[in-house]
Amino acid sequence: MRIFLDTANIDQIRQAAKLGIVSGVTTNPTLLSKEATSDYEKVTKTICSIISGPVSVEVLAEDAGSMLEEARLKASWAPNVNIKVPATAEGLQAIKILSEENIKVNMTLCFSVNQALLGALAGATYVSIFVGRLDDAGHDGMQVVEDVLTVLDNYPELDTQVIAASIRHPLHCTEAARIGAHIATVPYNVLMQMIQHPLTDVGVRRFLADWQRVSQ
Ligand code: E4P
Fold first, then answer.
1. Does 82 sit in the ligand 1 pocket, CB within 6 Å?
2. Does residue 210 have a pLDDT over 90?
3. Contacts with 3 (C-beta within 8 Å, 6 or more apart), sequence order
4. Global pTM?
5. What distance lies between CA 121 and its chain's CA centroid?
6. Which of 32, 76, 164, 196 is the 20 to 30 A CA-CA neighbour of 39?
């Protein structure tokens, strides 16, 4: 499973990039709105200069025609920009055309197997299943990820990759990897939680203390 970082914060992206395991970044209008600037083109270009893998940028338009215009513009910002398009009927029309134009699409706000299937049929490179928001609504978000993976496995001609999104805690990442999600897009704090274990900290301190005792 590959790890994408789910943030538009440049400091977090720089820090996480140093770890050497971040393959991409996903942004959305909410994440961008948390940043100090409203120059989204500049933010996107900076992210794309730090991370060479896919960087998802969302369209705000709601009708297919305007989505296409916005998507083409945003895709021109950097070669690794992917376009996030919501799982709506208008979005589906846009995804089909964008994929024919070789613009990579991440179908976002995907909450069901059927939405993911339609996105895959339209040619989306990724479908993002919002696990945390499904859990919040009383569903089993990870089960939807697993079901989407099963359905896509049934049709090898569909090469859409499944992103476990709306990740809230490290266990979501463990589960996503266990069931074979292609990607988990994780907030910075969850990424840091993934690397931490109290027994590692205790072990490091004990090794150092033992080494210091014999070397004195
Ligand atoms: C996915 O690409 C989205 O940016 C993100 O995972 C949404 O997560 P949230 O439910 O924490 O807003």
1. no
2. yes
3. 21, 22, 23, 173, 183, 184, 185, 186, 191
4. 0.96
5. 20
6. 164
